[in-house]
Design goal:
The chain is α/β, with parallel strands linked by helices and 336 residues long. It is built from 15 helices and 13 strands.
Length: 336
Amino acid sequence: MTTKPWTRLVLAALVLSLAAVACGDDGNTGGNNGGASPVTGSLNISGSSTVEPITSLVAEKFQSANNGVEIAVDGPGTSDGFALFCNGETDVQDASRAIKDEEIAACKDSGVDYIELEIALDALSVIGNPQNSIECLNFGDLYALFGPESDGFKTWADANALAGRVGGNGGFPDEPLTIVAPGTESGTFGSFIDLAIKGIAEDERGKDATLRTDYQSSADDNVIVDNAAQNAGGIGFVGFSYAQNAGDTVKEFQVDKGDGCVAPSSESVIDNTYPLGRPLFLYVNKEKLASNPALKPFVDFYLTDEGIASVEEVQYIALPSDRLEATRTAWETANA
């Protein structure tokens, strides 16, 4: 499997998981084959870098009981991943947003039918340097820093006037503004626009819902984290796991959509008070279920207690029990 900067986290979580199984605490998951014939074959999984840590840990666990299976997990971004998936090049698509209409059409044109499975929740996290005096950003502030009218802003203070015009709090310091954030290949890019930028851009300003063009984009979430950690005026946005695993090297800004400042957390996403919460998905190629003997056992395992525990083990947010049951039912129904 491809080595990524977060593999130490995945391996540490795997060690804890396997230790629990060795002690008999397997949560009745069916983490091994229970005496069945070993699974063999290969799987090609691509898509979201946000979901990649979850799927990589599930793959590690699955391979520990099925060492005849080769699994490649890559995270070029949700949009780039869908291009591969809808061309029939991958078995499973990790996605940090739901499939778009144009991607549905591309899959249909290529004869790719799929099963959509919600597998986790995420608190899309706006991160900055711990030295930053700002604690909370409302949607006007986010628009002034990241939105389509902020091109050319070199300092945080440059965004103050625009923030005032779009309902932001402003009060930004005269500090160099260093933005590193996902690019257009990323589902996180699209989610941030839809959740934080689109309303002001389209409804209030008559602008295209997009981000400023002069920031540094990166498909590597760890580069985004490093910018926030190392630059006093650094800012960006990443999935919850990357922010949590950065610890106190970054600040997670609270976000205010109009009902007060709310910090990203499991609780605030589940109760819908955090404005940048979102679901995470797997998409499974239905045709490949028949042709690839490793695919169904892998997804079966992904949705067991042991497999789905990977969500919290890499510090994302577990689905509420009713939503997890709906996912399991959708998978069972698709395979009936």
